[in-house]
């Protein structure tokens, strides 16, 4: 009697499942996944850069490829975005401000790296630089995705155009040109190290959300 009626009702409900309204996951889950993806990409780029930097510094030759080479930062190198901000000051910024700073920095660093790609003297080095530039472009886009998912506007200004360096002449000699390249790689290493920490903290602030289901109206 009653048991058979319940069974018949469940069967009918299962048969009609394809006609149920579409189900969507909450947007918070997408935000969490976007942050995790960006964090993973920074760690991958850190690993990739260790090999690339060693190869490029060997290409530059001594003293740039010597382990204890630690020159003072020249005024010309200031056009490269610096990551040497006090950590307490950096952590005191809002998430929006840190994300915007990362977005601007990697956009400019990417421009400089593409210039290196065109100047590298060996096919292998050009290939490695090209691959790294593609990965770094992916990081720029990934950061933009995180900012969008959190409701933050992207920084104004071009992201992929040539770096603005008004009043900065080309290096007058080969040594200073190599010094520019050295500082570019050094700053990029620091940015990636700090960005990995930034996104690790951010993903803890935006944990994976419990999937909530919303019924969308269906027109018949």
UniProtKB/TrEMBL annotation:
Gene3D superfamilies: 1.20.1250.10. It comes from the Eukaryota. Keywords: Cytokine, Glycoprotein, Secreted, Signal. Transmembrane segments: none annotated. It is found in: Secreted. GO terms for molecular function: ciliary neurotrophic factor receptor binding; cytokine activity. The keyword Secreted applies. One of its GO terms (biological process) is ciliary neurotrophic factor-mediated signaling pathway. The keyword Glycoprotein applies. Residues 1-22 form the signal peptide. Belongs to the IL-6 superfamily. In complex with CRLF1, forms a heterodimeric neurotropic cytokine that plays a crucial role during neuronal development. Also stimulates B-cells. Binds to and activates the ILST/gp130 receptor. This is Cardiotrophin-like cytokine factor 1. It comes from Halcyon senegalensis.
């Amino acid at each position: 009697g009653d048991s058979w009626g319940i069974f018949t009702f469940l069967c009918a409900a299962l048969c009609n499942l394809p006609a149920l309204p579409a189900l969507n996951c909450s947007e918070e889950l997408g935000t969490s996944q976007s942050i995790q993806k960006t964090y993973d990409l920074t760690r991958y780029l850190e690993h990739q850069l260790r090999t690339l930097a060693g190869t490029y510094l060997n290409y530059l030759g001594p003293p740039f490829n010597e382990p204890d080479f630690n020159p003072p930062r020249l005024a010309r190198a200031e056009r490269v975005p610096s990551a040497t901000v006090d950590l307490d000051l950096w952590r005191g910024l809002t998430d929006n401000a840190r994300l915007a700073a990362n977005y601007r920095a990697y956009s400019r660093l990417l421009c400089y790296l593409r210039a290196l790609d065109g100047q590298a003297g060996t096919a292998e080095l050009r290939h490695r630089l090209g691959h790294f530039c593609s990965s770094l472009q992916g990081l720029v886009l990934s950061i933009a995705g995180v900012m969008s998912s959190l409701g933050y506007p992207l920084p104004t200004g071009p992201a992929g155009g040539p770096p603005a360096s008004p009043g900065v002449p080309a290096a007058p000699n080969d040594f200073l040109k190599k010094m520019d390249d050295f500082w570019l790689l050094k700053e990029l290493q620091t940015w990636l190290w700090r960005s990995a920490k930034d996104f690790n903290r951010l993903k803890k602030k935006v944990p994976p959300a419990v999937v909530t289901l919303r019924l969308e109206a269906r027109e018949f």
